[in-house]
Write a structure and sequence with these properties.
mainly alpha, Rossmann fold, Tyrosyl-Transfer RNA Synthetase, 2 domains, three-stranded parallel β-sheet, two-stranded parallel ribbon, 14 helices, elongated, binds tryptophan
Length: 334
Amino acid sequence: MDKQKQIVMSGIRPTGFLHLGNYFGALRNYVRMQEEYTCYFMVADLHSLTTHPDTRELKENVNRVLAENIACGLDPEKVALYCQSHVPETAELYLYLNMLAYKGELEKTVTFKDKARLHPENVNAGLLTYPVLQTADIILHRAALVPVGKDQEQHLEMARNFVQRFNHRYGEIFPEPHAFNYGSELVKVPSLDGAGKMSKSENNLATLYLSDDDELIRKKVMKAKTDAGPTTPHSVKPDYIENIFQLMRLVSDQAVVESYETAFNNCTIRYGDLKKQLAEDMIRFISPIREKAEGIRNNAVYLRQVMEAGAEKARASARATMTKVRSAMGLNYY
Ligand code: TRP
């Protein structure tokens, strides 16, 4: 891979289905980054074991996430697209970093506290050291740029701490990783029920998944909350109406959006029509991705080829880093 380019690394958990929020918040950026950076995009199957010890659906989920990422435009020829468990060097680096991570700071992590509260019967050590494993993922490729959302900021701050400790103790091996996205604001994709953003697990009907079929998309969009419409010209849109417009701005032609803006401003808007239009434009956007992903998912030979090629690239970079790490740590005895 190109030595001059900066290194980007991110991980996607193979739990839940990818949705429109993932597309506009993450995937679309990854697709852009692959043209400008050396990119490592990884399916975090080991991380999923911290909360999902039952692995019956793992294979299917990993395949689906890979297929959906490719369907959205990630090119396995341009990036290293791989599974975490295919890069055993990850586990080795994780082990070394664990000696530099303190129980107290790990226990203070917000994601750890949330998960421990939700599942008090399964507060395992892997869950506690989740940010350490994530740090290993990133610095294994000596990546400095990590495209992630706000919810991962604390993990990155911890990653910087672990890196500083390592570098201080053993020598400057790793750059400090930082959250990285195009533009200052990440695109937020509002949910269809007028509250919050689209999410993997909450209210399924309010989230549009990249695997939803046309009928389901129509049904979800038509259920979005509206009201009788504005009665004074140029009024402020209520949140749930603004959300529908925001979704429309993501997938509809600008002229279409403008015509509905005008109709809203002069109080002639019919929300039934607005939603029908949005549904059809959503379908036009999602269905090619869904169909492409289905085609890839059904092509086991291709998926295997992608995983093997991705693992090969990731391991080459990992091996180079681990040689430096072992030598810096004094674990090279001959
Ligand atoms: N923790 C991330 C999440 O929940 C997934 C992840 C695993 C990750 N390893 C990573 C993200 C490395 C960025 C870099 O979404």
